[in-house]
């Protein structure tokens, strides 16, 4: 698979075995990279800085190991496939080794991971990781183990300290908490960009259209559910254009909804998006989701929400 970026094409590989020699020998950043936040960006930059003469690569896993080991957990992902790829491409990554995390892979020992995957498979010239990187069966490998193995095998290693702010280390966990608490602006500061939700536009119940506010409806699926309520948003359309709007994220209690979804009303847009993928960026949290006594009351509130969203987005 290939992903376009400004300077050439980023290539995505789903296996470490049988790679062409031209796709081996990179400087490789290691991790889950959920969110591709500022801390992740530092690991990617460290890999490039150590060996700027080599291709820049990221090794990550799909699904996220937490999804594999704890499938009963509520969805928690900040970035799914396409958005993660776009964020990595924006950092100048040439190759992404997105390895399937399955039963077989989960049983690789730490030694097998380093020797079979990183050395024999990828032929990594240099590795970069955070200080808390753990790998192998039952997380049997840590950074000191990786450093020892890399030295024996002749691979360089950069250990990247956490990127911090006044509240401490930047992490995916912190960003998830900020989004769930209704602070998308603070989450964006740690991500380096607004939090995005990407998905296919599906048919809803068309109630918004009847009151003059047609919506593009997206189910969250594996995405983390941020705080339920109304947001000022922008949406990237299939043609790459960005459009401002307002969105409700939640279960729609006024109409008796049961499953959370994102309903985005795009300002001054009238095209048909059904069946196409769009990306919705959350910029400002306007208010909590609430149940209204009537559609007229709901319509009045939407008018207020839309005006507030326009004002914030136009600043």
Written description of the protein model:
- The structure is a single chain.
- This protein has helices spanning 38-50, 65-69, 81-90, 103-106, 110-121, 143-153, 172-180, 184-191, 207-210, 295-314; strands at 2-4, 9-13, 27-30, 56-62, 95-100, 126-130, 156-160, 164-165, 168-169, 195-200, 216-219, 229-236, 242-250, 261-266, 277-288.
- By secondary structure, the protein is of the alpha/beta class.
- The protein folds into two domains: 2-165, Rossmann fold (3-Layer(aba) Sandwich); 195-314, Elongation Factor Tu (Ef-tu), domain 3 (Beta Barrel), CATH 2.40.30.
- The chain has a seven-stranded mixed β-sheet, sandwiched between helices.
What low-confidence regions span 5 or more consecutive residues with pLDDT below 50?
A: 1-7
Total domain modules: 2
Q: Please state the second-level CATH architecture of the largest domain.
A: 3-Layer(aba) Sandwich
Lateral arrangement of strands in the main beta sheet: 1-2-5-4-3-6-7
CATH topology of the largest domain: Rossmann fold
What would you report as the Rg, rounded to the nearest angstrom? 22 Å
Strand content: 25-35%
Number of strands: 15
Order of helices and strands: EEEHEHHEHHEHEEEHHEHEEEEEH
Instruction: Please give the alpha-carbon distance between the first and last residues.
Output: 39 Å
Shape: elongated
Q: For this structure, what is the CATH class of the largest domain?
A: Alpha Beta
Helix/strand class: alpha/beta
- Could you describe the largest sheet, including whether it forms a barrel? 7 strands, mixed
Tally of individual helices: 10
Oligomerization category of the chains in this entry: single chain
| Helix content bin | 25-40%
| Mean pLDDT, all residues | 92
CATH H level, superfamily name of the largest domain: HUPs
């Amino acid at each position: 698979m290939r992903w376009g970026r400004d300077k050439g094409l980023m290539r995505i590989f789903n296996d470490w075995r049988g790679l062409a020699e031209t796709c081996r020998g990179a400087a490789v950043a290691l991790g889950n990279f959920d969110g591709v936040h500022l801390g992740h960006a530092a690991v990617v930059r460290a890999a490039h800085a150590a060996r700027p003469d080599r291709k820049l690569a990221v090794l990550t896993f799909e699904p996220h190991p937490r999804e594999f080991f704890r499938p009963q957990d509520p969805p928690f992902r900040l970035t799914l496939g396409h958005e993660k790829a776009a964020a990595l491409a924006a950092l100048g990554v040439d190759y992404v080794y997105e390895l399937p995390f399955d039963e077989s892979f989960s049983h690789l020992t730490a030694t097998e991971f380093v020797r079979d995957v990183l050395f024999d498979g990828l032929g990594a010239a240099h590795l970069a990781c955070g200080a808390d990187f753990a790998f192998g069966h039952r997380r049997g490998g840590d950074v000191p183990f990786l450093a020892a193995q890399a030295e024996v095998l002749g691979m360089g290693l950069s250990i990247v300290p956490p990127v911090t702010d006044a509240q401490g280390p930047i992490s995916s966990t912190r960003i998830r908490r900020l989004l769930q608490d209704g602070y998308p602006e603070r989450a964006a500061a740690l991500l380096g960009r607004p939090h995005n939700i990407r998905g296919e536009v599906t048919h809803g119940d068309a109630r918004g259209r009847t009151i003059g506010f047609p919506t593009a409806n997206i189910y969250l699926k594996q995405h983390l559910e941020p705080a339920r309520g109304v947001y000022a948003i922008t949406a990237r359309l299939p043609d790459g254009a960005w459009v401002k709007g307002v969105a409700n994220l939640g279960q729609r209690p006024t109409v008796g909804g049961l499953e959370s979804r994102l309903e985005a009303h795009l300002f001054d847009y009238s095209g048909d998006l059904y069946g196409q993928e769009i990306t919705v960026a959350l910029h400002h949290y306007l208010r909590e989701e609430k149940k209204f006594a009537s559609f007229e009351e709901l319509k009045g509130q939407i008018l207020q929400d839309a005006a507030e969203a326009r004002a914030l987005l136009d600043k």
